Amino acid sequence: IILRHAHPSWFGYTKALFLVLLLLVAAGLLFAIQLEYAVIALLCATSTFIAIGISRYSHDYIVTRERVELIWGIIGRSSKEARICDIRSIDVYESGLKGLLGLGTIDFSTAANAGIEVQFKDMRQAHEVKDLVRQLQKGVDPTED
Q1: Which end of the chain is less congested by CB atoms within 10 angstroms, N or C?
Q2: Cα gap 103→117, rounded to integer Å
Q3: Could you read off the pLDDT of 42-89 as tens digits, one per residue?
Q4: Can you name the residues that pair with 1 across neighbouring β-strands?
Q5: What is the pLDDT of residues 123-138, one digit of tens each?
Q6: Helix 14-33 and helix 35-57: axis angle, to 10°?
Q7: C-alpha 83 chain-centroid distance
Q8: For the whole prediction, is pTM greater than 0.90?
Q9: Whole-angstrom Cα distance, residue 118 to residue 87?
């Protein structure tokens, strides 16, 4: 049973979204001057937006009762997972503009590796996910109310 399934937030791509906005403004200004350039700017804005969407949806963050898992890829899919019972530390980072927007990075570390085992980047409600995993480690069923 999947308790939490998420993707990186759209706001995790603020620079690329800002580029899309600039290209749309440029297209609007170029529309009166040269139609061909306006169309090129619109095509660039559209392709950038599509690339953001593909990047966002090619990353899946999954929390189940047994594990946390990161799955990524478009054609070929790869994954990293850590069992809930093996997780030794959970670090949450919310800083800068992304922190103000409510986005955080969650690092799950296990005793098996010295580094980070699984990382959820630019995730909304990062502290809630951390609390969910801690509840699962204590044996509390989060689906019961």
Answers
A1: C
A2: 20
A3: 999 999 999 999 999 999 999 999 999 999 999 999 999 999 999 999
A4: none
A5: 999 999 999 999 999 9
A6: 160
A7: 20
A8: no
A9: 10
Distance CA 89, CA 109 (A): 5
Residue count (the chain): 145
What single letter denotes the amino acid at residue 54? I
Angle at 4 between CA 120 and CA 9, to 5 degrees: 45
Q: Which two tokens stand for residue 112?
A: 């098996």
